[in-house]
């Protein structure tokens, strides 16, 4: 089994409909990616996506503009 450190890796949190996975796109193949099952219990994440927003119902989703709803801030 090959094991590599993940610190500093950039990827995307992907919802599969049943669970979340961490997706890493390959630099040399824009169509290629690897999805990793997440078993880490307290993984630190920094949100860099400018299209992300927190909502009052404790939901993290796309921005109101992307979802076509008015931001009532």
* C-alpha Rg (nearest Å): 15 Å
The quaternary structure here is: single chain
> What would the average pLDDT be, to the nearest integer?
90
Structural class: mainly beta
Query: What spatial form do the alpha-carbon principal axes imply?
Result: globular
Largest sheet: 3 strands, antiparallel
Q: N-to-C terminal Cα separation, in Å?
A: 50 Å
Q: What proportion strand? A: 25-35%
Order of helices and strands: EEEEEH
Low-confidence segments, given as residue ranges, are none
Can you tell me about this structure?
With 73 residues, the chain is mostly beta strands. The chain has one domain (12-67). It has one helix and five strands; from the N terminus they run E-E-E-E-E-H. The strands form two sheets. A three-stranded antiparallel sheet has the order 1-2-3, with no helix packed on it. It has a two-stranded antiparallel sheet with strand order 4-5.
Short description:
The chain is mainly beta and 73 residues long.
């Amino acid at each position: 089994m090959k094991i590599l450190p993940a610190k500093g890796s950039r990827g995307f949190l992907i919802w599969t409909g049943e669970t979340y996975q961490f997706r890493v796109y390959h630099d040399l193949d824009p169509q290629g990616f690897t999805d990793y099952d997440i078993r880490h219990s307290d993984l630190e994440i920094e949100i860099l996506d400018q299209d992300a927003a927190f909502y009052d119902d404790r939901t993290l989703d796309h921005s109101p503009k992307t979802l076509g709803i008015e931001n009532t801030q």
